[in-house]
Design goal:
Blueprint (H helix, E strand, L loop, with lengths): L2 E6 L5 H13 L3 E6 L9 H12 L3 E4 L2 H7 L2 E2 L2 H10 L2 E4 L1
Parallel strand pairs: 1-2, 1-5, 2-3, 3-4
Length: about 100
């Protein structure tokens, strides 16, 4: 199975990064999504539902921002903890 890391480094790209993660899961890839250096800017109902869908499809989502962990259910990971996950990925998609 193809392992994909989706890196979301900009608030204005968080929706596209999540949609891409879901699409890759539908294509039978193993997906880990990382929201880096910022809090989710627009946690509306659609974004929350898509995160739930990502979880149901066994995708994982991480953030180095503790607010995302506390408010939105992300798993916390430091940059040092994320680095080995990126090395294991077959493809890294930056946003």
């Amino acid at each position: 199975m193809l392992k994909v890391a989706v890196l979301i480094n900009r608030v204005d790209q968080q929706d596209e990064g999540l949609r891409s993660s879901l699409g890759l899961l539908c294509a039978n890839a193993e997906v880990q999504m990382f929201v880096l250096h910022h809090e989710i800017g627009n946690m509306n109902e659609t974004y929350r539902e898509n995160l739930e869908w990502l979880d149901e499809m066994e995708g994982e989502y991480f953030s180095d921002n503790k607010t995302n962990v506390e408010k939105h259910g992300f798993k916390y990971a430091t940059i040092e903890e994320i680095a080995p996950r990126l090395k294991d990925a077959d493809i890294i998609i930056p946003f």
